[in-house]
Structures are given as structure tokens and as C-alpha cells.
Amino acid sequence: MKLAFFNEIEKAQNVLIVGAGGGFDIFSGLPLYFALRKAGKTVHLANLSFSRIDFCEGERPIPSLLKVTPGTSGPASYFPEVYLSQWLSNRFGETPIYAISQAGARPVQEAYNWLVQTLRPDTLILTDGGTDSLMRGDEASLGTPEEDMASLSAAHCVEGPERKLLVCLGFGIDFFHGICHAHFLENVAALIAEGGYLGTWSVTREMEEFGLYEEACEFVSARMPRQPSIVNSSIISAINGNFGDFHSTKRTAGSTLFINPLMGLYWSFRLENVARRNLYLNDIRDTVAYHELSLAIEKFRAMQQKTRLWTDIPC
């Protein structure tokens, strides 16, 4: 018996994996990247970037997109894409990562359009480190929605790929950002009911793909010691068997964490179903600057007369 996600992926030959939420989100797609490459598929990587790519020197096919290779220049203090490209290139041969500007939904859409028209993927996988990409707008909190929603909007609207999928890795991490995980589970249930859920599976420490993922994260963190990824550090801690208020980085000092085995689960969905259930994608679609994107989301939230009350998960 196969999960529906793997039935979909079996048909894929040319895959584009894109980090949805900025920063290190592309790393949450690395176990999939390694597995798909091992299966003989062509795989490309892109990421909505927190780096100031407008200050970088490199190939820029359109203003909102930078092709990052091992030699691309940029801010040494925060440029995870270039360090990941260096590690991947050392292991597998030159591997570019396309960095998308942190902007409003329209420039992000232009980047997706170029990527799909140029790379011609038959499958687009949007990957989220955490689970706040499933927040539809009426929850108690949306976490940090700007980048996720600009990416979701762009992936939903871009034409070309036969399959569009969304995967989330790191259940429980977004408690750090105020997400109610009962609302996440309620949203998953609604997606199950309408046929948009493709299954859940574990990444375990024995998997070769996990070892490569952990190695890549350690390589990049060593070069960005002040900015290690909280999300990926938490996922790796959980998969290695740590539990509870365990801190692997000083960045989380003073907060309470709940590292747990569910952080190692991939949750997978049909992207179109997630996008259709979102209540405010149309409100952000024409935003250009990042502050316009934030303002559009704030306006939407201010107009909501009622949001779902916070609910604790029974235990």
C-alpha cells in the first residue's frame, strides 16, 4: 500500500522544490530532494529568501530572482542559499539555488513564472518548515504568514506543472510563533474530507536522506554561527530522539520548546485545495512591496468579526 503522495511523485520526472516561508524553509525539502534524486528524477531548488539578494552579485534573470551558485557574492552574515549551494555542489556537482526576493505577491509570482517557463517542471512541491502555511485566515493566530502566503499564491496561480503539492515538516515548531496546532489539525481534517490530503510519513535517523539533511544543516550553521535555523535545529533534535524543552541553539534561550517525535513527520497536501480554502489570497495577490503584503494581511484580520478560539489539544 502506497501513500497518495508517492503515487503522485511516481509520475514525476522533473521536479521543482521551493521553500515557502523564507530563510531556511528550503532545507525542510532536502530529505525529499535526496530521495527524488536517488530515484533518478531531475530536481531543482528555489527558496523565498531573507537575504538581501538585491545587494548580491550574480545571474539575475528577472529583478525578483537570483541564481545562487557556490561563487555568488552576498552578505556573509546571512546567506543560507549560497552555503547550501556550496555543500550540495561539493557532494553532487554544481547545484544552483534560485533565491526569490522577499517582496509582495506580484514579484514572487513573476519569479515562479520564470522558473516554470525556464525549468519546465512537471511537478511543483512547495515546502514549509513548520505548519503555518495551512492557516487559512480565521485561526486564533496566523504565525508569520507573509512569505508563506506570497509563495502559496504564486504556486497556485503559476501555469504549467501537472502536479502541485505542499509538504510541511516540523509539527509543533510554530508554537514558538503562536500557532494553535488544534487549528492546524482541524484544517487537515477539512482537507481530508475534500480529498486534498495526501498522507503523512516519518523521517527517521536511520535514513540516508536524514543523514545528508543533518550534514547540510551543520555545514551551513557552521558558516552562520549567529543565525542557525531554529526550525531545522528543532526538527533534527526531534528526529535524533530529544524531547521536551531541549535547546540546541542559543537563539531559543528564554523560550519554552516542545521538541517531540511528531516534528519528524512530513504532512502532504494537494496545493490547489490548500489555496482554495485560504480566505485572503485574493487580498494579497496584487501587492508589490513587502510592506503592502503585510498591510493587506493586517487589513484582512482587522475586518474579521470572529476568529476561532484557541483550543488546546486534549491529552
Could you explain the architecture of this structure?
Helix 2 crosses helix 7, helix 3 (80-92) crosses helix 7 (208-223) and helix 5 packs across helix 9. The protein has one domain (11-227, 262-303): Rossmann fold. A nine-stranded mixed beta sheet has the order 3-4-5-2-1-6-7-9-8, with helices on both faces. The longest helix is centred in the C-terminal third of the chain and has 16 residues, at 208-223. It is an alpha/beta fold and 315 residues long. It has eleven helices and nine strands. This is DUF1152 domain-containing protein. It comes from Pedosphaera parvula (strain Ellin514). Pfam families: DUF1152.
Give the topology.
Elements: H1 4-10, E1 14-19, H2 30-38, E2 42-48, E3 59-62, E4 65-68, H3 80-92, E5 97-100, H4 105-119, E6 123-129, H5 145-157, E7 163-169, H6 181-193, E8 197-202, H7 208-223, H8 230-239, E9 265-270, H9 271-277, H10 281-284, H11 290-303
Parallel strand pairs: 1-2, 1-6, 2-5, 6-7
Antiparallel strand pairs: 3-4, 4-5, 7-9, 8-9
Helix pairs in contact: 2-7, 3-7, 4-5, 5-9
